[in-house]
Design a protein that fits this description.
Two copies of one chain form a homodimer. By secondary structure, chain A is mainly alpha-helical. In chain A, 66% of the residues lie in helices and 0% in strands. Chain A has ten helices and no strands. Chain A is elongated. At the A-B interface, helix 7, helix 8, helix 9 and helix 10 of A face helix 7, helix 8, helix 9 and helix 10 of B. Chain A binds a DNA duplex (30 and 30 nucleotides) through helix 3.
Amino acid sequence: MPKGQQSQRDKGAEPVRKRLSPAARRSEIVQAAVDLFAETGFDGSTREVARRAGITQPLLYRYFPDKQSLIEAAYSRVFLETWDPAWDALLQDRSRPVAERFQTFYEAYTEIVFQPVWLRLWYYALLRDAQVHAWYREVVQEQILKPLVRERRAELGQGDAFAVTVEELDVPWLLHGGLLNHGLRQSAGQRDGRDRPAMIRKALDLFIQHSAAGAPARETG
Amino acid sequence: MPKGQQSQRDKGAEPVRKRLSPAARRSEIVQAAVDLFAETGFDGSTREVARRAGITQPLLYRYFPDKQSLIEAAYSRVFLETWDPAWDALLQDRSRPVAERFQTFYEAYTEIVFQPVWLRLWYYALLRDAQVHAWYREVVQEQILKPLVRERRAELGQGDAFAVTVEELDVPWLLHGGLLNHGLRQSAGQRDGRDRPAMIRKALDLFIQHSAAGAPARETG
DNA sequence: GGTTTTGTTGATCGGTCGATAATCAATGGC
DNA sequence: GCCATTGATTATCGACCGATCAACAAAACC
């Protein structure tokens, strides 16, 4: 019989101590932190994080010097792993219409960022410190919205060399923000069945129409 | 000499006790709560609320049975006093074009709801309980978006009697959400000078163009 | 002016939180 | 099989929080 199978200290079937590699343990803690913080905000207790990770609370301080660094680890886990490098190529694939490209992209993108855990953690981060917000705002603008404007310019034969202006980004920001807000609305208990792809399509239609209106009067049926 | 002018207990110039009417005191407490909760979220302490209101913390429990009712009082102060009854008439004033009416309305509306205290309290409330969110979502939809669709129908001569469908609300929701998100973005430390009226105008233009495209092919230059 | 009413305060309780120190025990090296 | 390493736990500290209660004092009343 293996020793310690049923010592007096065991209250359940779970072995009292399970020893993991630092990387694996740390990963479990971060995942527990992400889940908890997404539910309750960053005032969720370290004890609850530890409970969900199946460890005791002091052990948490073996992997993170303080709670703040645990919060930042949760940031990284969720936000930094959002962007798929393949999307950059997708957005610039000029063999397909802009609307079709960005439809594909936004369906994949929102499938990630519309998850409650992502949206809630995002808004909690936004409310807590403007630092994270400024950083991610830059990501959205450079990776998504400016490519959208540039690719649409090229599609309209307007040339894509010169810099994208602030005014050109207004409508893209409006629609991107509208989509984000739609995700938040659906995430917060709403169940009216309006599906994501349709909403994305409408947003992209609005942009395509709007950019065409500024172009040399090419009409779309 | 008035008694108690400089007793041993006075540490500053402030009189130790200032006696107010319950209504005035309660109002001061609620205002302090609104300010604090907008800054730190609803985990802001009752002691800090009391400090900002210039009273001691136990007195707070003379006016509110517990912290939750103080939170709800802060809700009411900010959210219930948002809507100006005059706006209902404004939105239905058919002597002016729909775009012009809603431009005026949204400029007044966002002047209130784009205040950091409003936006932050709103998102904190949204993240905390879906109840408040569902309630306010109903307000926006019934008071703003459905009138927008109906008035635009009338302007296009399509008749405004039959009910507004869910699909018709998609684009309005998209643009309304985009505006809200724009306010949040500006509130969170961004200073790029893009002004509200211009953004509102672009959002309304998008809606007007979109609804015109669905009409019997009337073209707008 | 004495008495009542009630707005206000000081003191404090039980609970939870973040963080630390001492101790225990599972694994790898030899 | 012993030992060193280090993952993991128990116990605990100081701070803060929500809430309660007895005591105090400023108006209000007659």
